[in-house]
Amino acid sequence: MDAPAAAPAGRHAAPPDGTPPRGRSEGPWPRTGDRVTAALLEALAASGELPDAWRPAFDAVPRHHFIPGEIWEQRATCVPVTTDPAWWDLVYRDVPIVTQVDDGRSDGPATATSSNSMPTMVARMLTALEVADGQRVLEIGTGSGWNAELLAARLGSGNVTTVEVDPVLAEKAAKVIKEAGYSPDVVWGDGARGWESGAPYNRIIATCSMRRVPYAWVRQTAPGGRILAPLAGDFWSGALVRLDVGGDGVASGRFVEGARFMPMRSERPGPDLPADSGTGRRGRTGAFPADSMAGLGFALYAGVKLPGVVMADGAPDGRYQIWLHDRKGSAATVTQEEVRSYGPRQLWEEVTAVHEAYVNDGGPDSGDFGLAVSPGGQRLWLRSPDARLD
Q: Where is the composition biased (Low complexity) (predicted)?
């Protein structure tokens, strides 16, 4: 039988870092920068993604100042973008930009390891953070420094600390931020530990995904403060959660929307065991509730009920497909017409059984789910913090 079809690449979005591009400010490019900056911000404002409170910061901190001359566009692979017209076009499209591959090594397979998030997502996250004048913010994942400088432009440099695990990226970001006239505290360290010496903070925002919100962040947030972070599981590729920190040392809140970010470096996934094509078998799909299964609500639900199972979906050849695997040698490729299963588990049957339970539970959407983080760990809840799902 055929080997299991590979899931599509790029299910997890790739975001960026950077130093100011040398040579981009020569000739006609200052006028280009002004024009495309204004066009992007007008589009964001017209769509409602950029509120009035954040517009001055975005005006003062153009994205292109934080994008290095060497960048990549994330497609099936990372494609270098070097020429001026293409560079400007990518920088001012509403897309993430890869700013580092292979952790800066020159001999790797060109895997994205740092990026600059799409402007819409940057604006959404800063809005969801709900900052106020005088508040102190800790950012986890400096990258290019753009997000940290937007915070500094809004709140003042003295109220912003940003942590970057890559010393080269931290140094570059500190340099470009200083050249732009701001001075937030840029520190090199493991963001999973937060930054104790600057605590307490009123807000913590992460620009990399993680499986679990570190309790160190809760401990370093003042009561009444907020944590905004992208989480990722096996079954689901990413979701933004907004947690409010109580005086009891517990942070709790709901999921806001889907959000795919690069994983925190300490949480990069290891290699999966390959599925054994010799165990391949075909079957009929049966019920195929593609719309419901593709939603974030089901993904959060199934992620708890099927730990270790990974799902991806897409239509690379024009027809919708689902790919499943469990990292231990079981896999399934599902279309409207048939299921191809591999390994000891019947993953499609397991997923459809969980989907039936999900429907019987009212088919909750992503806004019905929440997370609580305490000294004892984190737990997912459904509809109420008292209704533990996991």
A: 1-16
In 3D space, the residue among 84, 87, 30 whose CA is nearest the CA of residue 62 turns out to be 30
Separation between Cα atoms, residue 12 and residue 261, nearest integer Å: 6
CA–CA separation, 355 and 338 (whole Å): 18
> What stretch of H or E contains 333?
strand 331-334
Give the pLDDT band of residue 267 (cuts 50, 70, 90): low
Contact 112, 13 (CB under 8 A): no
CA distance 121 to 114: 16
Q: What is the pLDDT of residues 113-127, one digit of tens each?
A: 888 999 999 999 999
Domain definitions of the chain by residue range: 29-265, 277-360
Q: 117 catalytic, yes or no?
A: yes
How many CB atoms neighbour CB 357 within 10 A? 12
The residue from 114, 117, 144, 366 that is catalytic is 117
CATH architecture of 29-265: 3-Layer(aba) Sandwich (3.40)
- Bridge partners (DSSP) listed for residue 47: none
